[in-house]
Amino acid sequence: MSVPLYQLPEQQPSVWQPTSVEEAMQLKHQWGDNSVLISGGTWLRTRWENGLSSTPQHLISLGRIPALSGLTIDAQGHVHIGPACCLSDLMDNELMRQRCGLLVQACSEIAAPSVRNLASIGGNVVTRTGDLIPVLLVMNAQVGWSDGQKERILPLKEWLESRLLTSDEMMTKIVVRASGQVAAKQTEAEQQTNVEPNKVEQLEQDASRTHEFYLKVGRREAFTPSVVTVAGSLRTEADGTIAAIALSAGGGSAVPARFAELEDAVTGKLLSKEVLQTLHKGVSEGFEAVADDYAGVAYRKITAANLIVSECYKAWRKGGGAYAPRS
Ligand SMILES: Cc1cc2nc3c(=O)[nH]c(=O)nc-3n(C[C@H](O)[C@H](O)[C@H](O)COP(=O)(O)OP(=O)(O)OC[C@H]3O[C@@H](n4cnc5c(N)ncnc54)[C@H](O)[C@@H]3O)c2cc1C
């Protein structure tokens, strides 16, 4: 069992530094609502400073639990990310840059370097409104949760939709399949020892017809809270048919979500002006935006739709077949 790190004055919280998930959850169960799990503390601190929640008596730091800070890749090409990994470490990591380029881009657009040196990917997701979530949704991320004894893994999408309270569990991992065109090609190729030349060619063609994007709109260019964030991935066949599409939107206080019905509705269709109109309507109607002091619901809906459609238009131009626009 850990001992409090500092002998602090009574009004200040004790900081506990467990070294395993089991120990951390034991402390959480022991202190209950008088405690909080803390990773980088950047989100929690803004809440305490703004009076949105009170500082609890016990802070259970996750920084000394090795299992929460690992970064590995398994035989199937899935990247396992420890939730306590800070954003700047993820941005600097070669595996992440090669396999999860879109996620690295999203990390680089959060706050400023000093905040990113502390802010964790797990903390970003647990807030349910973090700007990394749209990308993770497009990557079909899975999240692991543990009560200290058992671990369960479920799709991030399911966890967000279930609105489960997480006070009895801790996030233990985030698992994503590689994104990025080079990564997709490498992953497939590595799974087969002798890749036939025509298979490699096929993978290269798939990669050249895949368009991925992440866009964050704020009130200014950098170091700003998001008003709207969108992410997506669109792969076309040689003739411009949509082979696969994944779209998501979030930003501000909205809980990010995919557009599953819309994705199903356009998959298998030839990219065209009509399909872009369908996407625009579907996103602006389906995005559950939330108004705040920065922007209203209507502005956020139309912005998300404009951003997504402009990226799909780029995909159409890039690999959309004989009828694709050339300019
Ligand atoms: C100046 C500034 C700018 C910011 N800009 C942005 C921005 O542009 N975009 C954005 O998305 N966010 C932004 N944030 C918010 C915040 O920095 C990020 O969301 C960050 O990734 C949160 O991570 P953290 O480790 O600091 O979380 P913490 O504050 O440590 O924790 C956040 C929440 O997650 C819980 N938690 C953390 N880890 C776990 C775990 N493993 N299991 C269960 N619960 C856990 C905590 O109990 C808490 O409820 C900003 C913050 C600041 C101060």
Automatic annotation (TrEMBL):
Signal peptide: none annotated. Keywords: FAD, Flavoprotein, Oxidoreductase. The keyword ATP-binding does not apply. Residues 8-185 form the FAD-binding PCMH-type domain. InterPro entries: CO_DH_flav_C (IPR005107), CO_DH_flav_C_dom_sf (IPR036683), Diverse_Substr_Oxidored (IPR051312), FAD-bd_PCMH (IPR016166), FAD-bd_PCMH-like_sf (IPR036318), FAD-bd_PCMH_sub1 (IPR016167), FAD-bd_PCMH_sub2 (IPR016169), Mopterin_DH_FAD-bd (IPR002346). This is FAD binding domain-containing protein.
